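Quiz preparation item.
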């Protein structure tokens, strides 16, 4: 019999189709609390930004696509695709930013995000880790965007994920075998 934590881990999927109903503030506060209790280098030098404003989400998505077009390859293909919506219609985006003083803090932000993804799943709230949206901070409006989102000075967006209620069920992709090496 698997414990509750392991069941949540095995059940979680990256969801790319969301209903429009918003995640309640109380539920998001619980998700954020899980992030704040993540393992870290001890300084807790991170910042959590919750974005539920549709106009801001659209702006960020547009800026990310504009930036992607300039990068070439697969990212440019996504930026040029009028059907591609990197936030997948999710009503909430959480950006975790780290202090610019220590690059290792990006790892702290990743552990915080993983805690939030698992907490959300345990509450039947779906999520998807989104790199693409971070491209909005590399756009011509990136610095202004950070100010508009009230990201503290000296911090940089490190990771992001969307949260909401899934519009459809998703099956787990098969897991690859042979990815662990044992030295006994």
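Solution:
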């Amino acid at each position: 019999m698997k414990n509750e934590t392991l069941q949540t881990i095995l059940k979680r999927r990256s969801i790319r189709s969301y209903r429009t109903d918003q995640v309640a503030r109380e539920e998001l506060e619980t998700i954020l609390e899980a992030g704040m209790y993540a393992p870290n280098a001890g300084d807790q030098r991170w910042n959590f930004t919750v974005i539920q404003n549709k106009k801001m989400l659209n702006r960020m998505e547009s800026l990310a696509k504009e930036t992607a077009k300039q990068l070439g390859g697969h990212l440019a293909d996504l930026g040029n695709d009028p059907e591609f919506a990197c936030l997948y219609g999710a009503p909430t985006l959480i950006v975790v930013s780290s202090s610019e003083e220590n690059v290792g803090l990006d790892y702290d932000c990743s552990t915080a995000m993983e805690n939030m993804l698992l907490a959300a799943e345990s509450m039947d709230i779906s999520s998807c880790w989104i790199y693409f949206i971070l491209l909005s901070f590399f756009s011509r409006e990136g610095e202004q965007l950070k100010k508009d989102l009230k990201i503290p000075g000296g911090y940089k967006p490190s990771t992001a994920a969307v949260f909401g209620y899934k519009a459809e069920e998703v099956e787990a992709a098969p897991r690859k075998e042979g990815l662990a090496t044992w030295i006994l």
